[in-house]
Inverse folding.
């Protein structure tokens, strides 16, 4: 199948050809015709499957048929980073269309956004909190919205945006097309879809809670105090570049980044306490290779897409097993190979059991020579003594996340032919 068979306009096909894309991914092949028909859609797709283009391309096609001063399409996303990446996709695929778009998120000045909206736009990409601020100030007119997209809806629910979303839904026209994209069809997502969608078509391209077969997973047992030293050893010994490391907390991310920098590894941290400029710079430096290792919290890393990202390391296992699937899904996308390494201390074994139960398989485990649990530190090795999360036992699920690690206000991966699926 080619994009030509999906019914997209000549301008979009030209942009796709110029970007080097010839064949749609499964989610695109299934979703694009349905969106072009005007159907509501409930789609389950992990990041890295090309889901962004699955809704951006048909929306641009439909918007190209007319123009107005008020926006006609609205794409809601959970984080600043995803908003910027979706907006970049809009610019890439719509480069030959006379369409205007705006990206709206918090953490930056609101006045330039107000001016952009005042000049008139056809499409808005936004995070719920900042868009609601505009609505309250009457600086955005949502009365002409024809298509609404909720991207990564499961994460928006996790991050506590449901109330903002409901307020925004109340402002939108009742007669509209609604597209809901989620990594999984959890019960809360199905409930949300029942309230928002009208006789939706359903597309599911990835089985629930599965990991890509091209991701090589492994576990390295190690003492908690020696985890940062083991990461430094693996990176130096394997000459690894572009390594994404997950920690549970923002403070833990900062601490680990400092330790790895002292070990001679160019490292940056990204989390909700970082300014938008700092987060943007860290991502850009990581993508360009100036930063070799990026330490991130779960929410800050949601939606991050790095071309051919080869390595993901779990410095600590997540408390929620499903987050393991999201974490390691940063690598091994769309036919590319990747490695996911988890450093597991004794107290994390219950968490590992929960993850393996979810995946319905055992993850291969091997001890790294010199880092055997209980062995003495190597000469000159820096040790750390991270404290466990307060008030939570290993294996106990956390209370619902607050949005504090994200800020209201995150694109797909190279395939085997070296091109990014869109």
């Amino acid at each position: 199948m080619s994009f030509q068979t999906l019914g997209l306009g000549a301008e979009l096909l030209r942009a796709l050809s110029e970007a080097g894309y010839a064949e749609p991914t499964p989610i695109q092949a299934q979703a694009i015709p349905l969106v072009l028909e005007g159907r509501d859609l409930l789609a389950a797709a992990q990041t890295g499957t090309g889901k962004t283009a699955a809704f951006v391309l048909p929306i641009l096609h439909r918007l190209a048929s007319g123009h107005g001063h008020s926006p006609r399409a609205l794409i809601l996303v959970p984080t600043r980073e995803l908003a910027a990446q979706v907006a970049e996709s809009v610019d890439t695929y719509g480069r030959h269309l006379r369409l205007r778009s705006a990206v709206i998120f918090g953490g930056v000045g609101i006045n330039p956004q107000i001016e952009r909206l005042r000049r008139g736009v056809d499409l808005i990409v936004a995070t719920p909190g900042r868009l609601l601020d505009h609505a309250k100030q009457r600086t955005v007119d949502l009365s002409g919205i024809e298509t609404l997209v909720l991207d990564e809806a499961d994460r928006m629910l996790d991050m506590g945006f449901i109330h903002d979303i409901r307020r925004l839904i109340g402002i939108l026209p009742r007669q509209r097309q609604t597209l809901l994209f989620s990594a999984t069809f959890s019960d809360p997502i199905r409930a949300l879809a029942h309230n928002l969608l009208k006789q939706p078509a359903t597309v599911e391209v990835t089985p629930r809670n599965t990991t890509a077969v091209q991701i090589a997973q492994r576990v390295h047992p190690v003492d908690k105090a020696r985890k940062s030293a083991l990461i430094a050893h693996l990176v130096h010994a394997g000459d690894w570049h572009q390594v994404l490391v997950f920690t549970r907390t923002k403070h833990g991310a900062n601490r680990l980044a400092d330790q790895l920098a002292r070990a001679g590894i160019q490292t940056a941290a990204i989390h909700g306490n970082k300014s938008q400029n700092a987060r943007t710079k860290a991502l850009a430096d990581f993508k360009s290779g100036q930063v070799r290792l990026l330490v991130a919290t779960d929410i800050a890393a949601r939606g991050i897409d790095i071309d051919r990202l080869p390595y993901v390391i779990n410095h600590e296992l997540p408390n929620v097993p499903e987050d393991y699937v999201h974490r390691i899904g940063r690598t091994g996308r769309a036919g590319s190979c990747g490695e996911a390494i988890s450093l597991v201390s004794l107290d994390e074994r219950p968490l590992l059991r929960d993850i393996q139960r979810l995946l319905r398989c055992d993850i291969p485990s091997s001890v790294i020579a010199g880092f055997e649990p209980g062995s003495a530190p190597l000469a000159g090795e820096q040790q750390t003594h991270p404290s466990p999360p307060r008030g939570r036992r290993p294996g106990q699920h956390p209370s619902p996340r607050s949005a504090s690690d994200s800020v209201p206000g995150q694109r797909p991966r190279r395939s085997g032919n070296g091109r990014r699926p869109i």
